[in-house]
């Protein structure tokens, strides 16, 4: 009789998992690989993300007295990685099905089945799946995947959603493995509905809900935009962390869809399609809380839809979250909170800017991080919904700034007046066009060296400021300009009047003062622009009044 007993392959693990096994940092593992010639060679993966044979690593750690005891849960996760590879979701779903039904699915090997059942007997099925899911979430975060919502996104949505009553209805139309949907409200309370385009994820999310006691949960597979599985559902709370920049969300097939009550999104605005889909499922008085890339707040293509959101009083709040909140990618993200009016619509939009906070820092804004903006102030040619664009001006003290700039302007004028040298009459134009020497001759004589392309005196008989002042004289500028009007940087042909060092220093002092006046006038021009722009802005937005007659 043929022996069909299957043996689980030796699991492969990442460098990060080696670090967890040994209780050290990932940097320490990298150092071991460089320092020890006998460190196990990669058995898979690629140059930037190598995988190592677990047994070889354990043997090496034991030999070096660096290994720690490997928990049963870690062994199970490593076995799953070895069995399912990149299909980790299918492996997790298979274990969840085993723990739910008590029978092993066809693809689940006997060794993994044995490990899972043994662990579940000593802890619980829910605790085991939580531990395995955390391992998966950690792996996806390190890989930069957007398959699941980051813990920081979940925390932010929970904070700005607030308490969810157990009688509420919640919908997540892009629920992934259910991380966001299952995190809101008490476990045995709200009725939860979800949809996910990846059938394995949808299956796993449903199993997670059952194992965690969230029995009033139903999750269906399918593309929410093209094939809405909940067409008649109106939820008290709709949450969504949609895929970023979905290249083909089905615009051509959905041009006349009734969900686009704020306007048909362009091909590049998949996020605004998700927003309107979520809003279409929001009951009167209910809320939509959706994660949006920061660029959606100002992109030209979405201006008309943003204007409708504001004009109808639908948009209640925009929160700019700290950098690093969405760990799957480097894009800054916002939370948009929409309310379907059930009576009189709000007349302001609350803007919250938390971008200066640490990603794990407080989410309750300080007074200077929040402002309520009247709808009319948002309805301009851009309809920019970026919180930072409004909070700074709202907390700005125009009068204090204007007064400070005006004082700086006066000080600069006085400084320029003091800098301008008090010149006396000379012998008349042309009186210095007598004995002169070229810069090239000065260099050959060792009196001048070039530093950064400019000639500089290296002799006590030549003053550098005197030299530089005459280099830019009208006569020398003509010598350095070609017949086509092009200025040449090579000034070796420029000529410098010959005079004693004491006279040179007098000229040098005057030229140095004029150089400082040049720099001062540039600063003066900058201050003039700042003060006039600030005054115009303050006068036109009501922050400043004109002087009384």
Q: Can you lay out the helices and strands and say which pair or pack?
A:
Elements: E1 12-13, H1 15-22, H2 26-35, E2 44-45, E3 50-53, H3 54-63, H4 72-84, H5 88-101, H6 110-122, H7 125-143, H8 151-161, E4 169-172, E5 191-196, H9 199-211, E6 217-221, E7 235-240, H10 270-280, E8 282-293, H11 303-311, E9 315-320, E10 333-339, E11 348-353, E12 370-374, H12 375-378, H13 387-394, H14 398-419, E13 436-438, H15 439-444, E14 448-451, E15 454-457, H16 464-471, H17 474-479, E16 495-497, H18 501-541
Parallel strand pairs: 4-5, 4-7, 5-6, 7-8, 9-11
Antiparallel strand pairs: 1-3, 2-3, 8-10, 9-10, 11-12, 13-16, 14-15
Written account of the structure:
This protein is α/β, with parallel strands linked by helices. It has a 9-stranded mixed β-sheet, sandwiched between helices. Helix 1 packs across helix 2 and helix 4 packs across helix 7. The radius of gyration is 35 Å and the shape is flat. The N terminus is likely disordered.
Short description:
The protein is an alpha/beta fold and 549 residues long.
Keywords:
three-stranded antiparallel β-sheet; disordered N terminus; single chain; alpha/beta; 549 residues; nine-stranded mixed β-sheet; 18 helices
